[in-house]
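Re: the 245-residue chain
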Amino acid sequence: MAQSDNANGSAGDGEERRGPVIRDNRRIDPETGEVRGAAAEEPEEAPEAGADDGADTGADAEEVEGIEIPDTPEQVVSEAINADERVVELTNDIKRVQAEYSNYRKRVERDRVAVREVATAQVLGELLPILDDIGRARDHDELTGGFKAVGEALEGAVAKLGLERFAEQGDDFDPNVHEALTLVPVPGISVQTVVEVFQPGYRMGERILRPARVVVGDPVEGSEESGSAEAPAGDAEDSGGRAEE
């Protein structure tokens, strides 16, 4: 900002000034638009090489600090052994987890199969009375026409699901699959045998859905011995007859 002084005033050094004195204290030159005086700051001096090296060395020291660097070959070998042991331990952990997962999958699959078998067995068990009616109709020659086609289709469908009919006349009696309604003596047999089937049995695989209801023939004691004793007597008569001739 311009300032004016009295021309009659005296200067600080005692010299007499004449006329007004105008000083332009504006920082920006109105003609050039540049900063007057010390406008452009001098660039900072680059740090010396020695100072940079010291700073980098300190930073490296801070980064390395806290990390144990082996100094001897023995330490290097020990670190390598420890690393190998750690790898073996982690590998065993992975194998153990994989085995547990495999066992889990097998157990889930086994449970799924068991549930499916139980559900199928329940459905087939509800169909057994219908199969009995179809069997009785076949025995009395009443399975004809459309009823025959439906019956055969039903029997084929349950057979695909694994249903199997068992118990026939002449089979050996098995208390695990046969239900004995009565026991009758029968000559000429050596073991208990099914002589009549009142109701057939059904099974699905190893699962017995219904045991067969049968009449069991029991062997008669001494029947085989008496038959064998009569044979020599007949041979004696034949020989006597030939002798008389």
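Helices lie at 49-64, 73-139, 145-160, 223-244.
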